[in-house]
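Please complete every field before forwarding. Incomplete forms are returned to the sender.

SECTION A: IDENTIFIERS
Entry label: holo-323
Bound molecule: zinc ion
Molecule representation: SMILES string

SECTION B: INPUTS
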Amino acid sequence: MTDLLEQLKAFEGREVGAPEVGPDPVNQPMIRHWVEAIGDDNPVYTDADAAAASVHGGIVAPPVMLQAWVMRGIRPRASEGRNPREDLMRLLDDAGFTSVVATNCEQEYNRYVRPGDHLRTTTTIDSVSPEKKTALGPGHFVTTRVSYHDQRGELVGSMLFRILKFKPPANGKKAVEPRPGAEAQPERPKRPRPAITQDNAFFFEGATRGKLLIQRCTSCGRLRHPPRPMCGACRSLDWDTVEASGRGVVYSFVVNHHPQVAAFDYPLVVALVELEEGTRLVSNVVGVDAHEVRVGMRVEVEFVAFDDELTLPQFHPAPGASS
Ligand SMILES: [Zn+2]
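SECTION C: PREDICTED COMPLEX
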């Protein structure tokens, strides 16, 4: 066994932090919103009379809502200190496995939960795989097990959640060494990493080189974005890329004020930019007051290095466009 694998295996079976308690007990309003969103009209979830006459004898929550009862909000909680999962992720990051993708989730239900039940969870690191070759790149599968207990300590369900921590093909270099003293001040969270695949890696590689690339079907010549394996017009799997001029117009946009995620600046202008080549891409409009952004505004690309590993195209108004 390699040194790394030995270190990774040492995390198996370890509990991740203190038990988490659901912010609210199981309740009818959350159930109602959930079933409306999902489109589940089984009356045992919302109709007290029908539920009373059913095998359940009263309202129950949909089993697949299990995770909703302990889900944390968008803001990180006050620091509880580092836990073994963070240490494990850091170990993998430092070994170059910097990208992450969720691969599967299996839930098991021991009983229906009902309004008034108050769930809490304990999480353990179930297993860490040896290095595997995957389509995304070499990586380790990390499986965590979350156990859901009610207020009396009865196990009501459990969940296995597996992620792949992998070395992205676009950027196989090792994680950047932290700068001396960088640990001293709390670091701003990094902007979320794109999920890089064989199909879209060229786009992000291009961005790191200051090029805005568009995928082109080499059979019929059509341009397409977002990247995908097959041409929607002629079904060819053959493609190359062309470099865009970087000029375009704001086709549509929203200004995001809330909820705020620490890695972004607000107000955040999220725009669908139509390039002069004809394809559209989602990006941000920067370098202008959010109130001045207009549909049809002429914009130009710039490349912003958010950190040592992530450079993305962003757009600013073309000269004279914002007046
Ligand atoms: Zn084609």
